[in-house]
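Good morning C.,

I know you're traveling, so I'll keep this short. The sequence:
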Amino acid sequence: MKTLDLLATSLGRRDEVPNVELAKEIVKKKDKKAVAELITIVQNEKKDLQHDAIKTLYEIAERDAGLVSSHCRFFITLLESKSNRMQWGAMTALERVTPGNEKIVYAALPKIIAIADAGSVITRDHAVNILIMLCKVKAYQKNAFSLLLEQVLSSPPNQVPAYAEHALPVINEKNKKEFARVLTSRLKDIEKESKKKRVENVLKKISSSPKG
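The C-alpha cells, ready to paste straight into the viewer:
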C-alpha cells in the first residue's frame, strides 16, 4: 500500500493511532522513500491528510531524527503555514532535527521567534527547546541565551516552570545571575502555588551550583 493509504484519514479513522503506527513502521524499515512521500502529502493533499502527514513526520523524527533531518529547511518553510496545526507540527519536527542542523536553524531564528510569539503555547514550547539546544553551541550561545531570556520574560506564567527546568543544563556561572533575575521577576505572575514552587526549586539549584 502507498504511504497515503496508511494515514488515519485514508483509513476512515479520526484518531492518531494509524499515523503513529505508520511512523514506527517507517523507522523500522528506515524508509526514506516513505518520508519523501509524506513531505509531498503535506505540500499537495487535503487538510486532514496534511495533518496526518505532519503528525507522522514528527513521530518519525522523535524516534529517528536522521530519517527526516535532510528536510530541516522544509520544516522551517512550513512554519509560515496559516494553519495552526501545521505550524506547531512543523515546530515540533524542527526541534527534533535541530541537532546536526544547528547552523540552518540558527539562521532561521528570526522566523522561529516570530512564529513562536504569534503562535500557540505548543509552538512556543518547541521554539524554547530549540533555543536551549542552540545555547549548547558556543558560536550561538550568547544570542540564543538572550532570546531564551526574552521568551521566559514574555511567556504565559504557566509555562515558566517548564522553561526554567528545561533550561537548567545550559545555566552556568556566567549566565546564572541573569537567569535567576528573570525567574525571580516572573514569580509574582505565577498564581498556582505548585508551579511557583517549581521555579523556586530551580532558583535554589542555580544558587547552590558549584562555580564553573
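Safe travels,
E.
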